[in-house]
Amino acid sequence: MRQYFGRKLLIYGLTFFVAVTVNWMIPRFMPGDPVASMVARARISDPEAVAAMQQYYSNLFGFDQPILAQYFNFWGALFAGNFGISIWAYPLPVSEVIMDAVPYSLGLLIPSILLSWFVGNWAGALAARRKILDNTVLPVGYVLTAMPYMWIAILLCWGFGVVFQVLPVAGGYSFALQPDLSWEFVWSLFQHWLLPFVSLFLVALGGWAIGMRNMIIYELEADYSNYLAALGAPHRLIRRYAFRNAVLPQITGLALQLGVLVAGALVTEIVFSYPGLGSLILKAIQNQDFFLLQGTFLFIVLGVLIANFVIDVVYVIVDPRTRAGMAGATT
Amino acid sequence: MTLSVQDLRVYYRTLRGEVKALDGVSFDVADGEILGLAGESGCGKTTLGKSLIRMDGRMKHVGGRVELDGENLPIGDTVKMNPFRFTEVSIIPQYSMSAMNPTRKIGRMVRELLDSRGVTVDLDELHRRLDLVELNRDVLGKYPLELSGGMKQRMVMVISTLLNPSLLIADEITSALDVSTQKAVVTTLKGFRELGFVKSMIFITHDISLTNQLADTIMVMYAGKLAEKAPADAIVNRSRHPYTQLLISSLPEVGVRYAEKKLTGIPGNPPSLLNPPVGCRFQDRCPLAFDKCREEPPAVEVEKDHFVACWKA
């Protein structure tokens, strides 16, 4: 058991290292100079002042050092919990900017991932072996899962925001409100949350339903199902066993899908101008904000890795076969 | 009379038509009798075994009756058949290695299975039977994957016979085992009968020499029909049907060096059961075939309890 988790943690550590390194490299290899754009924003024409500002900012962000030194400084600062200062939101620290956005992203992601997983599995299991349901759930599932995130988001925007005009299409809450704990604000928050949530939920739903349907059919044809049926066990028991065994690959699937879902959420946030990490990434790229980009990527990598680790642990709990693999068979 | 099968016909529905896997088979199995069912693959052995307990979705009961202990078995109706399963008719399947749910501890699976049939687990009895097949009682707290193949097989044997069924169908249960384990399985099955766990048994195998060690009566099937049925020693020593004779002569013998004498099989293949030939189904491969074989030979009792379906017998 300890060896298993030790190995897993090592792999996760390695993944983290590589991912963070790549995240550090990407902004630096992008064309453009963040300091130049910052100076340009200040609209100063005096060349001496420009040179001074340029030097000040380069020094502040450490761009005057060799690239390798920048890299090591980055890791040093990271372990000290320092993500640097945002260029776009200068002089706010990156960690603060991200912390403002994280609740929105998590509030969107966690319910949509979990709910689509549960509802999808339930619908798929129900559809397997019921002709009429199967003939409806399956095509609908294929259509949903084939939809690009931004396309369904735009459709929903257009439908509910423009045609019916029942739900707002942009922002995290009404522009007329200030964040506080009043019912009015919470209601506004909910209204703005609904459409991005539904678009993420729908796209993920189809895939889970199809996967579960196929797995259940496979499990119902498995030898143990046939044996139980031959011994006269009721359908209820056989279906229960089949469901439990069919859910296992779906748990793995969830681990694999997490990255895709996060990416989908980023695109969806941009469509709805939702103030989460997705919108933040867009702004960071537009403003060549190296540190903000690094910070958001780091946060996403961490989130996906942690979620994967949780799923690994869950898998060990629900599937005895992984446990036996760890300890070696006993006789 | 435990089991009586009259003119049983079971066909498989396929896209190309009906495959007549079981085409008019009649036989009886007496109380306490072990019937060995032999024949090459595709002759309808497993179809017969499955028909008696649970047909799969492609199988269709076309005709014939099955009676168990004087009661009609509704084999074509999977719902009505359910009360008989496990309690009256039980099966040790071909796939013992994968017959148990991999994610349930064995003891719990047995309990849930019995609960679903409205029977409470008699733990003492269960333990006694585990001892009998030399399984440690700990296996009930284990997952199937923690058991070896032979252990799983014995566990399935215990589960299948737990409710003392009248008829036990053992379907090719020795095929995946090594010879010494085969012998142990055969001994265990005999023990089950002696202890009254099962009244009678149909032992399906393609291994006619193994059948001889266990069965009282051997029934040889060919292409969905009965070829010959007789007491075990009569089949081995005085078989009358050319197919049975060829089947037995193609067995290797101890002490014979096959480098010098080539071991022969039966040339040719069984006919397609989609469109079986008219008359005797063995006629194309039979060395004794003559004109009369265009007509279907009835199964006649040539001596007591010795039935042969051949014009030459």
From TrEMBL, chain A:
Give the stretches traversing the membrane. 9-26, 108-128, 149-170, 190-210, 246-272, 292-318
Read off the PROSITE patterns from this record.
ABC_TM1
Family to which this protein belongs: Belongs to the binding-protein-dependent transport system permease family.
Q: How does it sit in the membrane?
A: Multi-pass membrane protein
What are the GO BP annotations of this UniProt entry?
Answer: transmembrane transport
Q: Where is the ABC transmembrane type-1 domain?
A: 102-311
The subcellular location is:
Cell membrane
Superkingdom of this entry's organism?
Answer: Bacteria
User: What protein name does the entry list?
Assistant: Peptide ABC transporter permease
Keywords from UniProt, A to Z, are: Cell membrane, Membrane, Transmembrane, Transmembrane helix, Transport
- One Pfam family name is BPD_transp_1
One GO CC annotation, please?
A: plasma membrane
Automatic annotation (TrEMBL), chain B:
An example of a Pfam family matching this protein is oligo_HPY
Cite the CDD domains for this sequence.
ABC_NikE_OppD_transporters (cd03257)
Do you know which InterPro entries this protein is assigned to? AAA+_ATPase, ABC_transporter-like_ATP-bd, ABC_transporter-like_CS, Oligopep_ABC_C, P-loop_NTPase
**Which key words tag this protein in UniProt?**
ATP-binding, Nucleotide-binding, Transport
Domain (ABC transporter): give its ranges: 3-248
Q: Which GO terms describe its molecular function?
A: ATP binding; ATP hydrolysis activity
Task: Tell whether Membrane is among the UniProt keywords.
Answer: no
- Whether Zinc counts among this entry's keywords is no
Sorted alphabetically, the Gene Ontology BP terms of this entry are: peptide transport
Q: Which Gene3D superfamilies match?
A: P-loop containing nucleotide triphosphate hydrolases
Please give the NCBIfam families that the UniProt record associates with this protein: oligo_HPY
Name the UniProt record assigns to this protein: Dipeptide/oligopeptide/nickel ABC transporter ATP-binding protein
Q: Which organism is it from?
A: Acrocarpospora phusangensis
- Taxonomic lineage: Bacteria, Bacillati, Actinomycetota, Actinomycetes, Streptosporangiales
